[in-house]
Every structure is written in C-alpha cells, then in structure tokens.
Amino acid sequence: MKRALVLAVSSVAVATEAHAQGFALNRYQPAPAGDAFFAVPSAVERPGGWQAAFGADYAHAPLVLRSTPDQRDRGAIVSGQLSLHAGLSLSLARRALVSVDVPAAVVNRGDSPPTTADTRITSPGSPALGDIRTGLRVRLFGDRALALAAAASLWLPTGSRAQYTGDGQLRPGAALLASGRASRLLWSATTGVERRTVGDLVRSRMAQVLTAAAAAGFLLADASVLVGSELSGATALDGGGARATNLEALLGIHLRGEQLTFGVGAGPGLSVGTGTPDVRIVASAGYSSGAPVPAPAPHFAYAPDPLPPAPQRPTPSPPPPAPLVSVTQTEVLIDERIEFEPGSAHLRGTELLERVARVMSEHVEIQRVEIEGYTDARERTQSGLELAKERADAVRDWLIARGIGPARLAARSYGRARPLAGNDTAEGRARNRRVEFRIVNRPPEAAAGETPR
C-alpha cells in the first residue's frame, strides 16, 4: 500500500517550520444528514422535516515522514486519526436543504518521528474539534428519477492546527450535483471547487482545489438495503504534483428503515497526497423525522358514485363516461382514483383533478383540505415516506396552479398505512399508490352540496 506523504528533511530549521504548519488533515467529508451515500451528496432533498446523522471514520497512516534521498521511513507524524461526525439537515420548501457537520478527532496519535539525530516533529496527542462545515443546497430541477442541484459550503475555523484538525481560516466551496434512480440502481455525482490546505508540512499553502466524487449502488430487499461503491478525489488547480492530489475509494452497505439508517464501509487510499490514508473505515447512523402515521380518522376519499347504465350505442367500443365529483357534508365522492406508477410522483392524468379543483372553487365553505399521500407495501422503506410526500405535494402544487389557495391545502405523508387492497397483486398495489383528501376544517353550518360536477 502506498504511503501518504514523502517529505524531504535535511535540517532542524525544516523540522521547526514543519511543526508550525499544521492543517486540517482529514479529507473525508460526510454527505449531509439524510443522503444515501457516505461521502457523495444527493441532488434531491428529503421532503419536509429534519434529519440527524452520527458517524465515525478512521484513517490509518494519513501522514508519514520519509527522508531523501534514501526514501527511508522515519515514522508516522499521524499514524491513526479517528474522527466523529455529528450532522443535522433541514429541508425547506421542497427545494432547498440547509446542513451542518461538526467533526472532532477523538483518537489522534503519531510517532513524533526524528528529522535529525536531535530533533523530532511533534505528533498530535489529544482530541480536538475540527472545522465545522455549514452548507446550503438548492435543487434546480428534476425529481428522484433525475435531478440537478447547486450547493455552497463554508468551513469555519474551529479546528486546531497543532492537532491537525483545522486550517485556521474560513474556507468556502461550491459544487454542482446530479443524482437519480432507475429501478434498483441509485447514483450520485458531484464536482466543485473549494479552498483548502495542500502540499506538505514544509510547503503547505491554501489553494483552490478541484473536487469530484461519484457513487452508485443497488437497492435490495425492497429497497431496505443499499450496497454501493464510492470514489472521491481532489487536486490543486495551481499544480503541486502528487502531494496535492487525493484519491480514495469506499465500498459500503446501508440498512434503510422508515426513520433509521445504518451503514458501514471501508476502502483504500489510491494516491500519495497529503491526508490520503492507507485505508479508511467508516460507519454511520441516521434518523429522519418522517411524518408519523396517525390512527384512522374520518376522512373523505375518492369512492365510486352510482352511475346509470351506459346507453346502448352502435359503436363496439364506446368511450368511458366522464368521472363525476360531488361534495357532501363530510366527504368528496368520485368514481375513480388518482394512482401513480411504482416509484414515481408523476400524475397519470389530470381530468379528475380538474373536477376536484372546480368543486373546491365552488364550495368555498371548505376552508382546509389535507392531501394524504400513500405508497404500496413494496415502497415501505424510508424512501417510501419521501415518495408519499412527493405524491401529495404534486397534487397540492397542481391544485394551487389552478387557483386553489395554498392556505386551503396541506400535504401529508402516510406511506403504506391504510391499504385499500392487498399488496400481493399488481392491481392491489396500484390501488394503494394513491392520494386521498380529508376535510380538516369546515364550518358545521355549511350546507352539503349534492350536485355532481
């Protein structure tokens, strides 16, 4: 395995200068809380709520000293660094995500290798807070199938240069992200520019760094397991050779529940850049504040309305009668349901919603309606709650675009709760992939409308 640093050492003066130029050594940057992969962020934010993540990464031999010209290994300046990460993210308006990551090195040790017969480089020896990262991500377009986003980050100078956990100054960064899902394949990719320390102990400097990362994985066991690989790298834009280039790979597995996630992974360093370890081991646990499933409550749903027999016509294939929508004191009646394709929030048709919009426009006494999003049992994981919310939001956005006041509409996610049919057949699952409506605020004195629309 390649070592992380080759450093020319020839005098005590070099050793003194090297000791004074500590920097943020750890090159591992976890993705915002709630994202699918370890270090490659997604372009799609989780709909609503907040997410928390706790993780750890261990880097073996990220900073090793060798002398010239014999290339003799003098020892590890940092032989092992174990960092803990606490992350928090919050989705805003279905388009943006704000996040924060707080790192801390809890194991931080080295050999204090000699530079001359009488001089040693002092290795770190105590825990220290790292540079806190704050971030903002905005989805530009797309959905879970394919999305593009822009992100900005700012690292605060909260770390310690002496303990190799901080760079000592504000560091900005910006990136473009893309992600998508096709059947069981989940992928993400990003490229951007950030400011960080590059070089080695003697000639380290702040520089603009080009970053890139990609990840792909397969969803197994009804999307409750994700097995994937990640590749991330960075290089200084103004040169600097191999010591200014980092490249690492990870192979990991993630267990995905409706609210809890767990993951473990490991991978080698693929370059000799400063901060690249021989091997890195990572672990993570996450929590999502998904909407709880309440006990069944009185609600109105699309339900068949008795229709008169279709008149006999000479044509062999008469067109189906137009769906009818009507309002009573407690519910809306309709002769069909709005359904969705598996794994999608795209509306299959809008004729039913046209009639629902007309009824709500005419029945102004209905002050507020809750749009409930559901999935089938095969969409039962954490992503199922996201998808259910996206379906409810899609219907809400469509009705708002047709003139229904936003204050009259609320979207909620209920996942696979209250199935309408069995999930052992394709027809049953199609009926369960739906949205329903429930009146949550209507004056009791309002008269029931009974006219079909």
Pick out its properties.
Porin; 453 residues; disordered N terminus; mainly beta; 60s Ribosomal Protein L30, Chain: A; single chain
Explained architecture:
With 453 residues, the chain is mainly β. The protein has 2 domains: 12-288, monomeric porin ompg (Porin); 325-441, 2-Layer Sandwich (60s Ribosomal Protein L30, Chain: A). 11% of the residues lie in helices and 40% in strands. It has 4 helices and 18 strands. The chain has a 12-stranded antiparallel β-barrel with strand order 1-2-3-5-6-7-8-9-10-11-12-13. The longest helix is centred in the C-terminal third of the chain and has 20 residues, at 382-401. It is elongated, with a radius of gyration of 28 Å.
Task: Point out poorly predicted stretches.
Answer: 1-20, 291-304, 446-453
Helix amount? 10-25%
N-to-C span = 73 Å
Estimated share of beta-strand residues: 35-45%
Secondary structure tally: strands: 18
Question: What topology, given as strand order, has the largest sheet?
Answer: 1-2-3-5-6-7-8-9-10-11-12-13
